[in-house]
UniProtKB/TrEMBL annotation:
SUPFAM superfamilies: Acyl-CoA N-acyltransferases (Nat). The keyword Transferase applies. It comes from Cognatishimia maritima. It holds the Pfam family Acetyltransf_1. Residues 1-33 are annotated as: Disordered. Residues 1-18 have a biased composition (Basic residues). Transmembrane segments: none annotated. InterPro entries: Acyl_CoA_acyltransferase, Bact_Acetyltransf, GNAT_dom. It comes from the Bacteria. This is Acetyltransferase (GNAT) family protein.
């Protein structure tokens, strides 16, 4: 199985100097610019760069690598209103993490592609991104969220259990995940 493949738009990630400074600040625990969560089109160059970083990390952490073409990669339109949403955590022009809400028009949707840059971990960004997806889901009439993950990502499993997700049986045929979770969308 091949390693992650680079997306042709990866070179479009802007503000390299800002991204480097933000990563240095995060590493040193001295974040000087506020972190905001922005809803973006998943085909935006910033979103694509964030997703490519996620795929690269999966390729490094999964024993057999990761090839997005073999996964159940969501279509962009399923992560945009009126079906879903895509969020990116930003600071100083740099993307620090992302998370998608993949809907199909029903009351059940999936959380996809939750990732936080290693330099920004421990700052609560994953929980903030999940919370944004829950708010978006509620606004779209979604009542149940599902997600999948891989046991090679134990921090993800801990996060999901800590934030009220319940482990369920497999609900898809994606070859990479081996853990599956569900959560009722909290009523506003």
């Amino acid at each position: 199985m091949s390693r992650a493949k680079a997306h042709p738009a990866l070179h479009l990630w802007k503000h390299r100097k800002d991204r480097q400074q933000t990563e240095e600040d995060a590493t040193q625990g001295t974040m000087t610019t506020p972190i905001t969560i922005k809803q973006l089109d998943p085909t935006d160059p910033i979103a694509i760069a964030c997703l490519e970083s996620y795929y690269t990390e999966l390729a490094a952490r999964f024993e057999r690598g990761f090839d997005v073409s073999l996964s159940r990669d969501p279509e962009a339109q399923n992560m945009m209103p009126p079906l879903g949403a895509f969020f990116v955590a930003m600071s100083g022009g740099a993307a620090l993490g992302c998370c998608g809400l993949k809907g199909d028009g029903s009351e059940v949707a999936e959380i996809k592609r939750l990732w936080v840059n290693p330099t920004a971990r421990g700052m609560g960004l994953a929980q903030r991104l999940l919370a944004e997806c829950e708010v978006a889901a509620r606004g779209l009439g979604i009542t149940v969220l599902r997600l999948d993950t891989n046991s090679a990502l134990p921090e993800a499993e801990r996060l999901y259990r800590k934030t009220g997700w319940t482990q369920i049986e497999r609900f898809n045929d994606d070859p990479y995940p081996d853990l599956f979770f569900e959560k009722a969308v909290p009523v506003g």
